[in-house]
Amino acid sequence: MTAEATAPGATRRYDVLVVGAGFAGMYLIRKLRDELGLDVRVFERGDGVGGTWFWNRYPGARCDVESLFYSYSFDADLQRDWQWSERYPAQPEILAYAEHVADRFDLRPSIEFGTAVTAAEFDELENTWTVTTDTGDRASAPYLITAVGCLSAWQIPSFEGIESFAGEVHHTGDWPKEGVDFTGRRVAVIGTGSSGIQSIPVIARQAAHLTVFQRTAHYSIPARNRPLTEVEQRDTKAEYDVLRDLARQSRAGLVTDAALGAALETDPLVARTELERRWWRGGAGLTGIFTDTILSTEANEVVAEFVRGKVRSLVRDPRTAALLEPRDYPIGTKRLVIDSDYYATFNLPHVDLVSVRDTPIERISPRGVVVDGHEYECDAIVFATGFDAMTGSLNRIAIRGTGGQLLRDKWAAGPQSYLGLGVSGFPNMFMVTGPGSPSVLSNMIVSIEQHVDWIADYLGHLQRAGIVRTEASPEAERDWVEHVNDLAAGTLLPTAASWYMGANIPGKPRVYMPYCGGVGTYRDKCAQVAGDGYAGFVHHRARRGSGSTVENDGAVPASA
Ligand code: NAP
């Protein structure tokens, strides 16, 4: 639609600018370029597609959503043709899938790889966004869509002496493409969230010695990963239409077993049998066993104590087992981890666990990690210390809306958005899986597809209606933020010092960032907003014969 400017140094013009070529950015191309015919430019800081799965190549990296459902549903042929090899897909297979999708739909020509967006600015007269990249290039378009991922800004705590370490340092979220060989080496892993728990058993198989530094013991459930059979694949694919629909209407974007009922009203024998059944089947179903696991401390304790019992039976040394028993937060209020052989790894003679809960890491020395005056010598340190989640990847871009306001300033006390899609003061900008939407509490691909479909419908509507500028109203945003906070406050979720709360980043405001009301409910809300003429968004139409705009008096009918 829009002609590209070709003069060197000139600002190139498109219809839509997208930041990020993970699963969200890729589907945006398919939807906006191939269905709406828009000229879409995607900027991607990596030199390949896949987002999270491009960067997180650490040993043992695997998705905690089953492969047959951690996949796009938008194309019937794609979902029929692609064969998954395992129940839970490993990172190389997910990346191969992303690359296949990029090739199959010819997405790469719309992507500029190795190009990070450093700034984005809205021009109030022209109603356009202009982005600046780290190569100094500039591009502009009426719309900006951020598809930056929720867990992309990896972080290493500022330990004293870290630069003095003489060995190798890696972060799980920025793992070298060529891999790391730990054979015969002494390795330290700091952090026992999903990334630490997945990588520790695999690193232990290679390393001469492994020391794990644990601040908080996390709840981890066996994945029981295994090869998928032909029959499973065939039968699931035959039912995909129904199953995908159920996932879209579910709480977490997954087809799961129904809950038994409230924990304390369930016969203890029935409860125990079901806990065992789900434990032995593996995967994340454990916390969904009761309707009140996340609502009541007593109910939560039934599931939490069950897991602690499993830890005691799996770990032979009672002192180590006691350290690994999670006690610092209710189960399910931090991300439940799905592992392969995690607890049993601590039975190996060359694996040690050091608790830094009460005596934090003092410093990093040239030879290792120092805790309580003791130097744990190592040749390599793996930081599995997580991310500045949900807002970090947006805040590191200087995004300026109306009046020159920076998004990171607006969000200084915590993220504010309408539906996790739009932000007041940032017209014509949409976020895919932004804070205030279910995102990280859900199967990300289900949430990504819902957001991209919604945004595409909206852009089509704006074009048809001759609306040149749209923006979440401050009132709609305030009400949504309040609703998101109220929902979380009615649960145990804000009680954990989790990354959902921003608690892992010193100085970050403590706000429960995702919407916890469930994927199905959220989807209905978004559909209702669209059906009501995009209620909560303020629209401006182009004035005939001039580039300026006038504000309408509220919603424009969706059929306009
Ligand atoms: P994370 O869950 O934030 O875990 C970071 C770990 O580092 C925690 O154990 C944390 O301890 C520890 N840590 C942070 N600062 C520390 C310090 N100064 N001293 C000692 N320990 C410190 O990060 P992650 O494991 O990378 O996982 C992040 C999210 O990514 C997951 O929750 C999940 O949503 C996603 N993920 C998914 C998969 C999957 O699909 N299987 C795999 C990996 C990641 P505290 O707990 O005490 O803060």
Question: How are the elements arranged and paired?
Answer:
Blueprint (H helix, E strand, L loop, with lengths): L11 E2 L2 E4 L3 H13 L4 E4 L8 H4 L20 H6 L9 H14 L6 E2 L4 E7 L4 E6 L4 E4 L1 E4 L21 E4 L14 E5 L3 H13 L2 E6 L5 E3 L7 H9 L1 H10 L18 H14 L15 H18 L3 H7 L12 E3 L2 H4 L5 E5 L5 E4 L3 E4 L2 E4 L2 E4 L8 H4 L2 E3 L6 H4 L18 E3 L12 H22 L1 E6 L1 H16 L29 H13 L5 E6 L6 E3 L9
Parallel strand pairs: 1-7, 2-3, 2-8, 3-4, 5-19, 8-20, 9-18, 10-11, 10-18, 11-14, 12-13
Antiparallel strand pairs: 5-6, 6-7, 15-16, 16-17, 21-22, 22-23
Helix pairs in contact: 1-14, 9-10, 14-16
Bound molecules: NADP nicotinamide-adenine-dinucleotide phosphate.
NADP nicotinamide-adenine-dinucleotide phosphate binds next to helix 5.
| Rg result | 24 Å
Sheet having the most strands: 5 strands, mixed
| Order of the strands making up the biggest sheet | 1-7-6-5-19
Number of domains: 2
Low-pLDDT residue spans: 1-5, 545-560
Strand content: 15-25%
Give me the secondary-structure category.
alpha/beta
Query: Which fold name fills CATH's third level, the topology of the largest domain?
Result: FAD/NAD(P)-binding domain
CATH architecture descriptor name of the largest domain: 3-Layer(bba) Sandwich
Judging from the principal axes of the Cα atoms, what is the shape?
globular
**End-to-end CA span:** 22 Å
Can you count the beta strands? Answer: 23
What is the CATH domain class of the largest domain?
Alpha Beta
The number of helical elements comes to: 16
